[in-house]
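I would love for you to help me understand the pair of lines that follows before we discuss the fold together.
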Amino acid sequence: MSISKRSKLIIGISLLFIILSLTGCDYDSAVEFNVIDVENIQTRTIAKGFRFSMFIDSSNSLWAWGDNSYGQLGDGSTTRSYHLVHVMDDVISVSSHDNHVMAIKTDGSLWGWGNNEHGQLGDGTTTNRHIPVHIMNDVVYVSAGNTHTMAIKSDGSLWGWGYNNWGQVGNGTTTNQHNPVHIMDDVVAVSCAWITTMAIRADGSLWGWGASDFSRFRDQTFEGHYYPIHIMDDVAYVSVGGRHAMAIKTDGSLMGWGWSEWAPIGDGTREGSYSPTHIMDDVVSVLAGPMSTMAIQTDGSLWACA
């Protein structure tokens, strides 16, 4: 079975999502594990929030189970489920980071549900939603942070909304945004986590905004950035963790920077880094978790640091 480099990257991210959801690691630097053959795993099928999980099956149906305190299972209730709950059909992508969920359907429409305290669903309200509500159309990629959301439309425009106390939405303010607002153009990838966002433009340049309390932006400040600032070039993929970031460059090299008290960067220290630090080569996928990182190399080997 032939599979593209981009598909391998996305498959790897999905696999890492599962692994970080189920395991922990306690190493100061990268250690090697064996991984399963991932060629038959469907791309972009997994999402894990806080105490709940979701997956898309081969028929594009979305299923969920776990905690449902905010209606994040999308079944119209707030009752925890220990069994699979059917949410909706025709879904090609799903993203969740805390207690809200965003999903893209096959027609490009974006839907959201769950916690909406800070407007992170983007429906113009702060009302929690127990069933999926329509947000916008022509969406090709979505990333749900803890309490904010970023989406890329088919024309490459990037949109953001939700909690904005550190400028993580990127529109130049610290005012919460309850509706999608335009941030920048020519964007091909975006990653957001706690209170930080990073995006890659079509020219391979990496941009970041939001909290810089642990020097995610290499400018050696501990302030918020309310607009996108340039980080580095020649970037193919980025993943933002709790207080660190990891990026794969176009040559396959893995770079890491930010806070590293629990050594999530993988450079063998606990000191952290103000600027991108080279970690390893021949990397095809990476996922930065709250306090850990996992990466897959071209030979299929899995490496972890925490």
In short: Residues 44-233 form a domain with the Methylamine Dehydrogenase; Chain H fold (CATH 2.130.10.30).
